[in-house]
Specification:
The complex is a heterotrimer of chains A (305), B (255) and C (224).
Chain A (H helix, E strand, L loop, with lengths): L16 H25 L16 H23 L6 H33 L7 H22 L3 H32 L15 H48 L59
Chain B lengths: L2 E12 L2 E12 L3 E5 L6 H9 L6 E6 L8 H5 L2 E4 L11 H11 L7 H7 L5 H4 L7 H15 L3 E5 L7 H16 L3 E5 L3 H7 L2 E6 L2 E5 L17 H4 L10 H7 L4
Parallel strand pairs in B: 3-7, 3-8, 5-6, 6-7
Antiparallel strand pairs in B: 1-2, 1-4, 8-9
Helix pairs in contact in B: 3-4, 3-6, 4-6
Chain C lengths: L1 H18 L1 H20 L4 H32 L3 H7 L4 H31 L6 H25 L6 H27 L6 H32 L1
Classes of the chains: A mainly alpha (305), B alpha/beta (255), C mainly alpha (224).
Chain lengths: 305, 255, 224
């Protein structure tokens, strides 16, 4: 399908439909397997009981959230680097940030549920929890910034700079929150280090595969949407350019108050109203428009001393 | 002849809207060029593209031998732009504004006083916060900023707007002096008389392109504000019989 | 770069001296925020004294937002942003100059705020060196981050609301680290050693944002 697209329509759509469909179905299958193993096959934990089942969602979702933001930072850095600058990196960055935000929200919600069940509170000032919340706020700011800028080049630049600065902030934040936490002695409750084995391990691995596939599927589609938007904008640009040029046609002979049109001095070859080539000028100069001075050869001295 | 501005098929967008749809423009050093056209024709965008403020999507552009996009910083020290808006700091006095412009461009701070004087802003007017000046006075402060900088290329967008007859004359004189001193002047105006007074070449802009030069008889009769000497005496050399006929006639205003 | 920074900082401070908009509005606002904290904590003296450093830095961040907005509103008012681009000034110099002017205004506001905190919340001073050093460094960081993000938003439609959304999460480590440094400077937590460690973190943040601003300001000014 993508072979017969005309070249003028901007970037070609990446990934064949078959690839994305296979990815989607395998993600769905892996999710089903994870749900089946996680809810029915694997036994309750000795210590945590039924609560252990959230282990089959939360760690995988949280990992995908960090992978998404990592891809966003990576794409932004690659876009900023002059040698690797390409719209591809910007698309990767926006896809990573958007999909990452979805997983980030899921991380916060599942983490909160887990916290309520194990420690009896919906929220605790655990460093990782705090950091994830800050990350979520930052990603919303990043996405709001992208929506606020219309010019593609400006949008890529501003959002890349913000993403890189935010990534650096996260590093500072990491140290800040973990040092801060060491001052507060109350939160040693969180030691998510249960000895996992057997069906539990298998189900956890399955959950990583399943959410990894879901993540990849969402990334691919978000990336494709970005490409489609670019193609759509390209088409609009071509149409707008033609419309702008045709404004000149409104000034044709008989049109409102202009005198140059219709004189035989002016060769009317289309909307650009190009000037006829000057006698004796090289053929390459033929397309030069009305604002240009005559080419060398017949070129007179300029009018103002 | 050295070209100061050379544009070939320049296209520029604002979002999805094409401001410039393939402009060709040549301006020689020391020339005065007046761009004429209706509102929205692309005059302002053309000036901004030459100043390097408007990113160019396609086409070739060279201004003072530099690429206005790639060498923007080097170019801008040598180019002065007076836009629709004056770019003044409302809370600063006229003198402070001009001083800042001069220092920023690397010109001596002392250039501010004479420049203001040249535009008739002396005494109390120079020390008043710009926000309290009238529209015409503010326009003159902005012009004084250019005069203090003495750029090699002057780009002016409707510089006569808001000025009274005597200050229009003053502005015309200032521009002619700048051109006589070797600077190049490109200004946009929708008034026919401006071009007559300045003795410049007049180009018509429409639909985001330069569509042609205006002929002398299309410029209309001079209006009241033309107080300066007739164009022919100020420096426009008659170009009849030189070069290809259409350009000699249409590209240059013959007095 | 340094000369251009001086020119721009001089210009911004001269505007402030002529108009007094920044201090006339930012300072009363910050003091009001302090009073509101007092209401929120219901005059619980020991609690207020404990929370004083955190409340102080929150007030500083709240004061920083309008200061940054004012710094760019001045450029946007009469198309001066184009003038700044056409001026031939080095972008890095413009960034440093604007950040320095914002930082200086914030420091003046902080001097008054600190007095307010001492009086209203009954704080005592244990480590003046740490207090001043961390205040200076975090102010530079707030101003640097603010001006970098302010430049980003110059041409945007919804910049007034977008700036807090972008800046607040980014300033989170400053609020945290400066608060901890001040807690130790005010003798609220054990030993000044921990305080200096927080100071190091603040310095990291400030360096990141000043360097990021210097590197990216030129491109940001061109594109937005």
């Amino acid at each position: 399908m993508r072979q017969d697209e005309p070249a003028s329509l901007g970037p070609a759509l990446p990934f064949r439909p078959l690839t994305t469909r296979a990815l989607g179905w395998s993600a769905l299958a892996a999710l089903a397997v994870t749900a089946w193993w996680g809810l029915w096959v694997s036994p309750p934990d000795v210590v945590q009981g039924q609560l252990v089942r959230i282990l089959y969602v939360h760690p995988a979702v949280a990992t995908m959230c960090y992978v998404g933001f990592g891809l966003c930072a990576l794409g932004s850095l690659a876009w900023l680097w002059p040698r690797t600058r390409s719209p591809r990196w910007d698309r990767l960055a926006v896809a990573g940030a958007e999909v990452g935000s979805v997983f980030c929200l899921a991380t916060l919600v599942t983490g909160s549920i887990w916290g309520r069940a194990t420690w009896g509170v919906w929220w605790t000032w655990d460093p990782r929890l705090t950091l994830t919340a800050i990350l979520f706020a930052m990603s919303l700011g990043y996405l709001a910034l992208r929506r606020g800028i219309d010019k593609p080049q400006a949008r890529s630049l501003a959002s890349s700079v913000v993403a890189v600065l935010m990534a650096l902030t996260v590093v500072v934040d990491h140290y800040a929150t973990s040092w801060w936490n060491s001052l507060h002695q109350g939160t040693t409750l969180l030691q998510p280090n249960p000895t996992v084995h057997g069906w539990q391990l298998a189900t956890m691995l399955a959950s990583f595969v399943a959410f990894g596939l879901v993540f990849a599927w969402m990334m691919v589609h978000r990336y494709r949407v970005e490409v489609m938007e670019e193609r759509y904008e390209d088409e609009l640009l071509q149409a707008a350019l033609a419309a702008r040029r045709s404004e000149v046609a409104l000034l044709e002979p008989g049109g409102p108050g202009t005198g140059w049109a219709g004189r035989e001095d002016w060769a009317g070859d289309g909307p650009g109203r190009r000037l006829a080539p000057a006698p004796g000028s090289p053929p390459g100069q033929a397309g030069v428009g009305a604002g240009a001075l005559p080419p060398a050869g017949g070129r007179p001295e300029v009018g103002v001393r | 002849m050295v070209l100061c501005v050379r544009l070939r098929q320049v296209v520029a967008f604002a979002g999805r809207y094409p401001l410039l749809a393939g402009v060709d423009l040549d301006v020689a050093e020391g020339e005065v060029v007046v761009l004429r056209g209706a509102n929205g024709a692309g005059k302002t965008s053309l000036l901004r593209a030459v100043a390097g403020l408007l990113p160019i999507s396609s086409g070739e552009a060279s201004v003072l031998g530099l690429d206005p996009v790639r060498d923007a910083r080097a170019l801008r020290r040598r180019v002065g732009l007076l836009g629709h808006r004056n770019g003044l700091y409302e809370d600063l006095s006229a003198l402070d504004n001009v001083r800042f412009a001069a220092r920023a461009a690397g010109a001596p701070k002392a250039a501010a006083g004479p420049a203001l004087e040249r535009l008739g802003l002396t005494g109390r007017l120079a020390d008043l916060a710009v926000g309290r000046l009238s529209a015409g006075q503010r326009r003159r402060v902005a012009l004084a900023m250019l005069a203090a900088r003495q750029p090699e290329l002057w780009l002016l967008d409707e510089p006569h707007a808001g000025l009274d007859a005597s200050h229009r004359h003053l502005l015309d004189q200032l521009l002619r002096e700048a051109a006589a001193g070797g600077a190049t002047v490109v200004l946009a105006s929708h008034e026919a008389a401006v071009s007559t007074a300045l003795a410049g070449r007049t180009l018509a802009v429409a639909g985001g392109t330069v569509v042609g030069g205006l002929l002398a008889d299309e410029l209309g009769p001079p209006t009241d504000h033309q107080v300066g000497p007739p164009a022919g005496q100020v420096g426009a050399v008659s170009r009849e019989g030189v070069g290809p006929a259409p350009l000699a006639q249409a590209g240059f205003h013959v007095a | 770069m340094w000369r251009d920074a001086l020119v721009v900082a001089g210009k911004d401070l001269r505007i402030e001296r002529r108009s007094w908009v920044g201090l006339n509005q930012v300072l009363p606002y910050a003091l009001t925020v302090l009073l509101l904290f007092g209401f929120a904590f219901d005059q619980d003296r020991s609690l207020l004294a404990q929370a004083a450093p955190g409340l102080y830095w929150l007030a500083v961040v709240f004061a920083g937002l309008p200061a940054v907005q004012r710094s760019f509103a001045v450029e946007a008012a009469d198309g001066a942003a184009d003038g700044l681009r056409m001026s031939g000034l080095e972008p890095a110099g413009i960034f440093l100059g604007k950040a320095a002017a914002v930082a200086l205004q914030l420091l003046v506001a902080q001097a008054v705020l600190a007095g307010g905190v001492a009086v209203l919340f009954h704080s005592r001073l244990a480590g003046p060196g740490l207090l001043v050093a961390s205040a200076l460094v975090s102010t530079a960081g707030v101003a640097g981050a603010g001006v970098a993000y302010g430049a980003l938003l110059v041409g945007l439609r919804a910049r007034e609301t977008l700036l807090p959304l972008l800046l607040a999460p980014v300033l989170a480590p400053v609020v945290l680290a400066a608060t901890q440094a001040w807690r130790s400077a005010l003798g609220l937590s054990a030993g000044p050693g921990g305080g200096w460690r927080w100071f190091g973190l603040l310095a990291c943040f400030t360096v990141v944002y000043l360097a990021g601003g210097v590197l990216s300001f030129g491109a940001l000014m061109e594109e937005t």
